[in-house]
Structure of ABC transporter ATP-binding protein:
Amino acid sequence: MKADVSSSPPLVALRGISKRYGDLLANDHIDLAIDRGEVHALLGENGAGKSTLVKILYGVIEPSAGEIFWEGQPVTIGSPVEARALGIGMVFQHFSLFDELTVAENIAVSLSDDWTLSRVRNRLGDISRAYGLALEPDRAVWTLSAGERQRIEIVRCLLQNPRLLILDEPTSVLTPQEAEHLFTTLDKLAADGCSILYISHKLEEVRRLCRQATILRGGRVIGTLDPRAKSAREIAAMMVGTEIGEVRSGTPHEPKGSMLEVRDLSLSAPGLHGQSLEAISLLAQAGEVVGIAGVAGNGQSELFAALSGERLAAAAETIRIAGQVCGTSNIDSRRRLGAAFVPEERLGHAAAPTHRLSENTLISHAAAEVSHSGFILLNAAKRLAQSIVKSFDVRTPEPDPQARKLSGGNLQKFVIGREIIRRPKLLVVDQPTWGVDAGAARLIRQALVDLAGEGSAVVVISQDLDELFEIADKMAVIHQGRLSPLRGITEWTKEAVGLEMLGESQLHGASHAV
Ligand SMILES: Nc1ncnc2c1ncn2[C@@H]1O[C@H](COP(=O)(O)OP(=O)(O)OP(=O)(O)O)[C@@H](O)[C@H]1O
């Protein structure tokens, strides 16, 4: 630790921090020190104990053992209020916002009383501009995309001039340009002496940003390093303890018939500020992965809601699944046609947090295998949950835990596994590898490619362009509720996708002969 050699103590030092959940040691005698102005990465596979450690530092959970030193003095951080009083700010992986309140109101309620609404509004504009984090103060949070919600969390912290800023997967829902803005901001903050503890599974950005990294595995520190001195591949191998391979492409397949056909789908915006969908047409055939790229907030969640039946189209013929018209059918009817859906928000939308994994299988497996004559077959549900856990390498802290007890990436594997194991004819998945580690991302991508290889159609809505280039056979880009033409993946370049994302392809004459 740097503390021993530098003349002044580090800003924060953790010594022997442990956290026990029943038999599980989520943190096992962790030592970690961060100097002023240091950008320090906390790395580790899903379930390694990263969130647990930073929640301890932010006063959300109490450690079972160990000490925290702030500028050399022992401190007890009993709550987030105490953490903030010390100068610790945190941006969480799961957002904690009030849907019905506006952006400015959400920020004001979380700050101390001297932050009046008008003061927040005034500062919000400055901060948003300075950091490239565009936000409209009067928009209700429920109308915002995940990316925009995360911006609120980041701005909320920055308004408090933190001395240590903790960011848990901050770029998962940002566009590459927004992420680059954020890095510039973080560089500036660090140059001004603010320390940053940065959790990310994106190792290239860790290499771009951080000078120090601590790697956790199984709750223990297994090493510290300068991430610039190693390749992303080497760091990933250290994290999971083994080399991570590439996704094997499926056997080249001839698309075999339409599994999803969308014709001229238009839907008004769900609320004042949501995105309307404009004449969307899309074809996904058996045996292929179709990618939908785009910047958050351009209609992805509205498209997902329309495809899944959470919102209904005006005419049934607008959407066909496996050849059957279903534009006005609800989600259960669409599941009965052989479709499966994985929404972006895993906790709350895709999984019920306080229910056990076995109970969470009922969300989409209500038919046949886990119920009979209206009765739930609990043992069958448990067996099903177990087989998902096994096939998708879901690491659980106990047998059949509540969903909220899983780390973010492990819950994602469970939710995707729950749908894939049904062998749907059509799978529509929104942001499949959000917050999952390199090993788990590979597992999920491979599972999607394999599903298509077995003859299903897979529609992947993703902000991760590299992911789409790796697994999609065809791709379209969504921008302001309109979908670009669907093209074979090899016909796309990153530049062409970028222009479509910005809605500028027509200006540059890149597409659409009329
Ligand atoms: N409330 C809880 N009760 C029981 N076990 C828990 C609880 N919260 C976390 N765990 C377990 O503690 C371990 C560490 O989880 P943690 O969320 O810290 O991992 P992580 O490294 O942040 O993972 P990810 O990258 O997936 O977010 C996991 O095995 C997790 O299942």
